[in-house]
Structures are given as C-alpha cells and as structure tokens.
Write a structure and sequence with these properties.
This protein has 175 residues and is α+β, with helices and mostly antiparallel strands. It contains 9 helices and 7 strands. It has 2 domains: 76 residues, Double Stranded RNA Binding Domain (2-Layer Sandwich); 82 residues, no CATH class. The strands form 3 sheets. It has a 3-stranded antiparallel beta sheet with strand order 2-3-4. Strands 1-5 form a two-stranded parallel sheet. Helix 3 packs parallel to helix 6. The longest helix has 19 residues. It is elongated and about 55 Å long.
C-alpha cells in the first residue's frame, strides 16, 4: 500500500536518520535462529516503526543490537522510499543530491550507500507524478530511461512497483 503525503510535507526517506528516528518507535526483541547462546539471552533484534506512516524496518541477523539497529534504520529508509509518495519531492526534482549523482546522463550510486533510498524516493515520486511515463521522467531528471530502469533494478521491489504502476496506466510492463 502506497501512502501519499500532503502537499509541502517532506518525504521521510530524505530526512537524516537521527531526525527520522524522532518520529519512530523502537522495539528490541528476542528472535530464534543462528547465533548461539548469546543470541538467545539478549534482545538483539531491532524493529523500528515510523509512527506517521506505520512503515517498519527490522533487523535480527547480527548478534549485536548496535549492528541490527543500523541495519534496521537502512531498511526503514528503503521501505519509506518504496511505500511513500510525495508530490513535493517530484516537483523539486531534480534535487541537488540527484544532480550531484547524475553525470553525463548516468546515475552513479551503490545500493548500499546512505543516499540510495533518497534517490530512489525521488525517481519513484517523479514516476508516480508522471503516471509511470519513463521518457518524461528521464527528461525531468536529465538522464536516460535506461539509467532509470537500471537504478530501479538495483532494488527489485522498486522495479516491481514500476511495472504495477505501468499496468495501472495501461502501459506494457518492462522486462
């Protein structure tokens, strides 16, 4: 389910992590699985819920609560990028961050980088505002349609979202 933000509200994926966490509820849990005795005695799993949207990020794969917290924040930001649409971000595009990452029509970003969810949110918001029309989105963002598709394929859920939006608007899905 996609949440549409009111006009002039900042997209939560663009907010720095320390400020984003002010709007979040954090739980620590015990989980089963690998990790041995230490894992079964501590509440190392972390679940972070963004209260305004209800979107969560969670991590439990590490024995360290600190490491799981960091991973849960990354997942929360990615889930926010995927699950929230903002007309304000679409209108502001291309943002200075996007421009700093787009050189000669090519987008340079590693999916593990902290900026990836922000860039993903920006491209998804522009696509949403343009009814999944890739050429118009590429023109607005000053890059190529193939670069947008390549970026979306770095996060498979984003590529699935694009194809679902294309179907809604009577456009053929992409491979």
């Amino acid at each position: 389910m996609t949440e549409i933000l009111p006009e002039n509200q900042e997209h939560p994926a663009t907010i720095p992590a320390e400020l984003l966490l002010r709007d979040c509820e954090i739980r620590h849990e015990r989980r089963r699985g690998p990790g041995g005795q230490h894992r079964n005695k501590t509440e190392s799993a972390v679940v972070i819920r963004h209260i305004p949207t209800g979107i969560e990020g969670q991590a439990a794969e590490r024995r360290s609560q600190f490491d799981n917290h960091r991973n849960a924040v990354k997942r929360l930001r990615m889930n926010l990028a995927l699950g929230v649409r903002s007309a304000s971000l679409a209108e502001a595009a291309p943002t200075p961050l996007w421009q700093s990452r787009c050189h000669g029509s090519r987008i340079g970003i590693n999916p593990d980088h902290d900026d990836f969810p922000v860039l993903l949110a920006e491209v998804l918001d522009v696509l949403y505002s343009r009814h999944a029309h890739l050429p118009g989105t590429a023109e607005q963002l000053a890059c190529t349609t193939s670069q947008i598709v390549k970026l979306l394929k770095k996060e498979p859920r984003a590529f699935l979202w694009l194809n679902e939006e294309r179907r809604k608007h009577g456009l053929a899905p992409l491979d």
